[in-house]
Design brief:
Blueprint lengths: L2 H13 L2 H8 L3 H15 L4 E4 L2 E4 L1 H27 L5 E7 L1 H8 L3 H7 L3 E7 L13 E5 L7 E15 L1 H7 L13 E3 L13 H4 L7 E2 L3 H9 L4 E5 H4 L5 E3 L5 E10 L6 H16 L1 H4 L2
Parallel strand pairs: 3-4, 3-5, 7-8, 7-9
Antiparallel strand pairs: 1-2, 5-11, 6-9, 6-10, 6-11
Organism: Tropicimonas omnivorans
Family: Belongs to the LysR transcriptional regulatory family.
Keywords: DNA-binding, Transcription, Transcription regulation
Length: 293
């Protein structure tokens, strides 16, 4: 497998369309199509089905996609280790992120980055209601919903899902709701209503219009702790609930949101920013089944 052709194929598979992949790679759709066709010819199989909605992986395409991702991961790790040993990546990188993503997902993985780059110092800060990449309040920001202001480089990280959860103890004590309307008879856990930082997080009404929380907590991590304690039923990120003792409630009622990553375009050539952004993307990609189980 030609690695150059594989890179083009990976971009199309991840973007789901030729145009988006071409923009991301800074090349033409014609050249991109030629490289993917060359890979298909080399492996002797059709890897993508081109439709009016975009490009979808075939069964053979999924096999090659997984192989190409392994090649990419090994190459990036090898390059990272070489650069790290030469001390080429140094300084401080500040990452701003929502508390759920930052504290529950990214924080336990940051040691992987500093292990490869011992001269890199990482700061992880909670994402406030308002922030400014141009004023360097963060070098990289992970956010819910695509930003539409500023001179930013923006990358889609992952869709993620949330649903209602409760502790086994709470359900044994108060019963299990069968429909969203049944939630009205239960203790509910949610955000502090007038402190929700973005409309993207006002998702409780998608499960139950008029949702009223008995316990309001201004952070996702705090809501998780309250629900695990048996305080009531709350809407929890699936990746945060994974591996816990929480029980899904109304499992067919799911909320979907998207994480985006952004950094100021003036930093696009800063090596530490590029390395950190690639690291975050790789960690999310590796754990993609957690975000949408």
């Amino acid at each position: 497998m030609d690695w150059d052709d594989a890179k083009f194929f990976l971009a199309v598979a991840r973007e789901g369309q030729m145009l988006g992949a071409a923009k991301r790679l800074g090349t033409s759709q014609a050249r991109l199509s030629r490289r993917v066709s060359a890979l298909e010819e080399a492996v002797g199989a059709r890897l993508l089905e081109r439709t009016t909605r975009g490009s979808e992986l075939t069964e053979d395409g999924r096999i090659i996609f997984e192989a190409a991702e392994r090649m990419e991961a090994e190459m990036l790790e090898s390059l990272a280790r070489l650069q790290g040993r030469r001390g080429e990546v140094r300084g401080t990188i500040r990452i701003g992120a929502p508390d759920g993503f930052g504290a529950a997902f990214l924080a336990p993985r940051l040691h992987r980055l500093t292990h490869i780059y011992p001269d890199l110092r990482v700061e992880l800060v909670p994402m406030p209601h308002a922030f400014s990449l141009s004023r360097r309040e963060a070098d990289i920001a992970v956010m819910v919903g695509r930003p539409d202001r500023g001179r930013l480089r923006v990358q889609r990280l992952a869709d993620y899902t949330l649903r209602c959860y409760a502790s086994a103890g709470y359900l044994a004590r108060c019963g299990t709701p069968a429909t969203p309307a049944d939630l009205e008879g239960h203790d509910l856990v949610g955000y502090v209503e007038d402190m929700i930082p973005t409309s993207e997080l006002a998702y409780a009404g998608e499960i139950l219009p008029g949702w009223r929380s008995r316990i309001e907590v201004s952070t996702a991590v705090g809501q998780l702790a309250a629900v695990r304690s048996g305080a009531g039923i709350g809407i929890v990120h699936d990746f945060m609930a994974a591996g816990s003792d929480l029980v899904p409630v109304l499992p067919g009622h799911i909320v979907t949101r998207t994480y985006w990553m952004a950094w100021h375009e003036n930093l696009r050539v800063a090596q530490r920013v590029r390395i950190a952004a690639e690291f975050i993307e790789a960690q999310v990609r590796e754990a993609r089944t957690l975000f949408r189980p």
